[in-house]
Amino acid sequence: MVGEPESLFAAAAACLACDEIAAKLSLTHAAARDFEAGRLGLGDTSTVAPIAAPGRPQRPRLVAPRELAQRGLGSVEGRAALVHAVAHIEFNAINLAWDAVYRFRGMPERYYADWVRVADDEARHFEMIATRLQQLGHRYGDFDAHDGLWDMATRTADSCLARMALVPRVLEARGLDVTPGMIERLRSVGDLDTVAVLDVILAEEVAHVAAGSRWFDWCCAQAGVEPQARFRELIDSHMRGSLRGPFNREARLRAGFTAAEIAQLEAQGV
To answer: Is the domain covering 65-268 a CATH 1.20.1260 domain?
Structure first.
């Protein structure tokens, strides 16, 4: 007799807790394969042991955003620093996706399928950008980084609705806004290898933000609140005027934003 599938939540917790990069990547890919093949089930959805912080390597050193050195793209060192910053975002995105799986129980199975796929994608993105970083003579951890992404995860730990609004639809959506400019700057200095990696990441991140939009709308429907008004309230309470344009209108529309939401962001200059 075939036993019950192992728990997806246990697999997510293992991926979150792992503090060694190669092992976290391997565990993530394996868990995604196992979930897709039906070898990981939802199991007990009632108990969540708190995870204060995900496993991460000792480096990079985490500092306040204002303490990060500013480097131009005219040098290899400057381009490596930019690539390192992207690698740090992708590494955090792996943990954010697994936390979305682990922390929020009782969601439809498609919710878990979405965020397992996102975790797998983010691990692949990290591998791509880390390889490019090595080609530039550096490794992940060689430059300082900040921890703003996980800070927002902590602040939204008690609400799936707030998490979907403020992590994929705010922080990750900023990647849709700023990456095209990064690509053009890198293209202007002839770094077409990094451009090729960022082109792939930008195209695939649209689906990740769209997953946030889909489940934000679902949570709003369950709570009986109007999505656009609630989104604005959450930005007002958590972002404190720090989110400003220009916004990548085309990418945001494909990622589930409404034209009214984008117009509101542009008009109010949040």
So the answer is: yes
Across residues 181-200, what is the average pLDDT? 96
Note if the bond before 57 is cis, omega within 30 degrees: no
For the stretch 61-77, pLDDT in tens is 888 877 787 778 889 99
pLDDT tens column, 85-112? 999 999 999 999 999 999 999 999 999 9
Q: What is the rounded CA–CA span in Å between residue 226 and residue 161?
A: 12
Any idea where the domains of the chain sit in the sequence? 65-268
